[in-house]
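Archive entry: two folds, one per protein. Generate the first.
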Amino acid sequence: MDKYLNESPIISLKNIHKSFGDKKVLKGIDFDLHKCEVHALLGENGAGKTTLMNILYGMFNQSDGEIYIKGEKIINNSPKKAISLGIGMVHQHFMLVEPFSVTENIILGYEGKKF
């Protein structure tokens, strides 16, 4: 895994800000994800974890900052765009479909490439 740290991140969030009206929720968030890395995002309720993921998934637009996927700056303004870039999201209140495995449940929403 360490060999990938010398490569450009596959996802990079730079100076992400998000406000809802006068309420500043995210202030200057930077985050890099390299190939084969796994991260956990921890914080109290209301800390902005879901807001940050919703920005990455295209549900919200950031108030300021930039998003890069594989080194390319993107405007991610919809979940459809996020999915086309290979970004998916499993929501916190996700209900599993029996008798599918966790992996099968995750790929249920993946449409794949259209021909």
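Generate the second and append.
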Amino acid sequence: MIGMTPNEVVYGINIFDPLQRYRPISGKKIAEHVNKVKAYELNKVNENRKNNLFAEGDFVYRKLESKGKFETKWIGSYLVKEIRDQVAKIENEYNILNINIRKLRHI
């Protein structure tokens, strides 16, 4: 924590304590705190992220949008042709699709 109110950071004085005089604020201290908060938030985001487990040439199933309780949930098999970030280009004998890797699973 910086130990200051938001008003103190912006204007350099605490409006709730009028006897307190202007206090110079170190931009370096604020930048360090902002970087620390950003690193913490990035760690929280990446905490549950799965690594990309697919490679080109793998055979996978594709998840279908569920329409009912007894409908099939996975359809396949598809061949992974290309992977970019979180998107895979998959194909079977009928079509080629670009799909998020969260909607794929290995055979």
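Annotation attached to the second fold: Residues 6-46 form one domain. Residues 27-46 form the longest helix (20 residues).
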